[in-house]
Amino acid sequence: MMKKACLLALALAFCAWAQESSDSGLDEFERSLVPETAADSAVEAPDEFEQSLIQHPSEMEPVYKTREELFSAIKSKNPQNVAKIMEELEAMESRTVIPVNDIEKEAIYVEMRMYKSLLASLIHHYRNIFDSTRYDHPTVAAGDGLDYHVRQLLKEREKSDKNIFFTLEKNADFKKIPLQQRQKLEMFLLLRDAYRSAEVNERVRDLSKIVAEDKNDPDAEWVRKCVYEPLYRMRLFLFSLERRAANKEGLIQRKLYTGGFGANLYIPIGGMGFGFDEFYREDLFAPADPTINLELYLQIYRVAVLFEYINSGVAALNSYEFGLGWVVYDSRYIKVRPYAAVGKSFVDLEPINDIPNFPSSTQSYGNSSGSKTFTAAVNVDYKFGTAYFLLSDTKLTSFCVSSKLGVSYIDFEHEFAKGSGATPFFALGLGIYFW
User: Fold this and answer.
1) CB 264 within 8 A of CB 431
2) Distance between CA 301 and CA 256 in Å, rounded?
3) Average pLDDT over residues 108-115
4) Between the CA of residue 181 and those of 120, 144, 207, what are the distances in Å?
5) Is the pTM of this model over 0.90?
6) What are the Cα distances from residue 72, in Å, to 54, 109, 248?
7) Checking phi first, is residue 302 left (phi over 0); if not, alpha (psi -120 to 50) or beta?
């Protein structure tokens, strides 16, 4: 009996040894085929969230735990918890850690229809988008359930080529937002497409102008500088016209005394001739109808070179003259320009009766003794309308009421008319000046 018991113990020991030897001799693939017990599985296979934590530095563990809580709040459709946990995540942000990025915030707030939080997030995003000192090689939380969820939301958006605003505006709760906030939210949502679509550009420009002009809006000033003005300057033609208008007065002041080209038309108002009694035979001739006086001048700085056709106060006696002037005063509205001129006079006579061998129509007879007409006068111009010349932003056009006061000395000698003397005169007219 004792002998049988010893043999049985030896057989059991041998079986145990054989089993251990067999397991240890399995290669890696064979061991993989051996099913694990529930206990072994529980020990060796952590759940998915714990596995994600193993892959990240220990300082990011609180971030990922909080992100998991945020994901749970989103799945449970609880806006209050979402807002609370989002604040906790934002408080974890530093120069080296981004616990939740702006794209995630926007996608979450859109999904949860948290429009007030969405507006605040967009404002913060655009106000800090160009701040290069905000972070220092930060670690961005990613690769977890929240990241995957946001990527799915953005993937759904890509199915439409329209901005997310055009989806939100159809929601009844979106229309309940106060008008001022709704316009502001629309502006920020559309802003990313403002430089790709002319229609969106115009809409964002109009909305940003409304915000910029609201004195009670704390974002008015930077919206004006960073949103409205850049978009407004994109309308190159209209922007150029407005810039010209704003710069016009300064340009006028800089261009005074610089010169230009002018033309004046005068109607003789009054004058008299001393020394021209019996100038022609009034029984044979009558003076021709009075003409309009003309003056053209080229101003170079203060110097003015001029040509004029002028009646100096004696009926039918007109002169072609060339002169040189000097601008003694030039301002926004008034220009004073005295000048001296020399030229040749003509008399325009019309026969009263038929005269043999004499033309029956009005004729102009020149001075047989040459150029013996001298004039000293002063022009005073009142510029009542100054505008840019066509589309130029450097050239100006001024309309003016021009007056001329002077005296001429004329020595005239011809077969049908003769006389010499002084002729003071005054004329008034309209002019235009390009400068």
Assistant:
1) yes
2) 9
3) 94
4) 10, 33, 11
5) no
6) 20, 15, 63
7) alpha
